[in-house]
Amino acid sequence: MPPPNAPGDSAAPLRTSSFAIEVPDALLARARAGERAAFEQLYRWFERPVFTLAVRICGDREEASEVLQDTMLKVIDKIGEFRGQGARGGTPFWGWLRQVAVNEALMRLRKQRRRRDELDIDDHTPRDDAGAPPATADAAQLQRALAALPATTRSVLWLYHAEGYTHEEIANLMQRSVSFSKSQVARGSRRLRDLLEPSGEPLAEVAHA
Predict the structure, then answer these.
(1) Residue ending a domain, choose from 79, 114, 149
(2) pLDDT (0 to 100) of residue 48
């Protein structure tokens, strides 16, 4: 497996996103026309990736269920505005839907954050050891370790390692600085290694767990 992106690297992600499902143009056309069966098909295809992402960001299955419902309702409401797929350089449908899901999950995370204070490490300099944790823990161990991280740190790690967002994109999504994203990845990766040692598994390897 190749090494993770360096802190300032905007290269391609380590793995294909779990959202990367090719949606036929004919199915999108049926959905735009309001066909219920088409929306049910889209829901079945994207239910798991949306729910998994929401759990990783919100840290709560009930909240994740709400994010899933809100995401799919918004997709139904806004699908007529999607014009990316098929255009040169356009956004694929799965990328557009993923953006809706991330926005919904982060909106709930911000609401959670208002209810508690979190350490602001915006001015901290990340170390060079910002890679994913070592490579032998099972998915359950990693899930428990991720759950032990602060919500913001867990969200940044997931967006960076599992979904392949760059630090610049994460900073924009979370309305923070690029250095914030870098330091959260560095801090979270070190914490995961501490939790998983003497064995551990790279985050990207269990993105669909």
Answers:
(1) 114
(2) 95
Please state the rounded mean pLDDT for residues 25-42. 94
User: 97: domain CATH number?
Assistant: 1.10.1740.10
Collapse the DSSP code of 147 into the 3-class scheme (helix H, G, I; strand E, B; otherwise coil) and give the result: helix
Structure pTM?
0.69
Question: Is residue 76 domain-resident?
Answer: yes
Q: What is the pLDDT of residue 110?
A: 78
* Percent over 90 (pLDDT), the chain: 46
Triad 170, 173, 175: Cα angle to 5°: 100
The rounded distance, in Å, linking the Cα atoms of 98 and 55 is 14
Q: How far is 142 from 7, CA to CA, in rounded Å?
A: 22
**Residues of the domain holding 85:** 25-114
How many structural domains does the chain have? 2
Contact (Cβ atoms closer than 8 angstroms) between residue 204 and residue 15: yes
